[in-house]
Design a protein that fits this description.
Layout: H1 8-18, E1 37-40, E2 55-58, H2 60-66, E3 71-73, E4 80-82, H3 91-94, E5 95-97, E6 104-106, H4 109-118, H5 123-134
Antiparallel strand pairs: 1-2, 3-4, 5-6
Amino acid sequence: MAKKKITQKVREQVKQRAKGYCEYCFYPEAYANQFYSIEHIIPLSKNGTDNLDNLAYACQCCNGHKYNKTHAIDAISGKKVAIFHPRKDNWEKHFCWSDDYLRIEGLSATGRVTVELLDLNRDSLIRLRTVLFAFGEHPPKR
């Protein structure tokens, strides 16, 4: 069965809902050099759907790191836990910003595995967050 293409209307709805930011690392699309993906939170390969509630706006790095993963092993507990679900999970329950607002820190097992799996503090993000913070554009208003 051929994969259905996400319509431009749905793409715009997902982008508007995300306010132009990656829903995982908060990289602003305005500064990206690649197009953002409409990412299936629960992948189609794992019976996910094209419903808006299962779609997230993602930069290419987060989308590539996540691929079709939905769970990972937490380094502290050693347990397999679900990664962050932007539609169902509360960001503040699982993450916080470091004191200098440059790094996303995991507060829960879900937060920790998501930070690690998606590399939410990669060097390019730290550099961009540093510049945006200096201009009062970081952290993003949620």
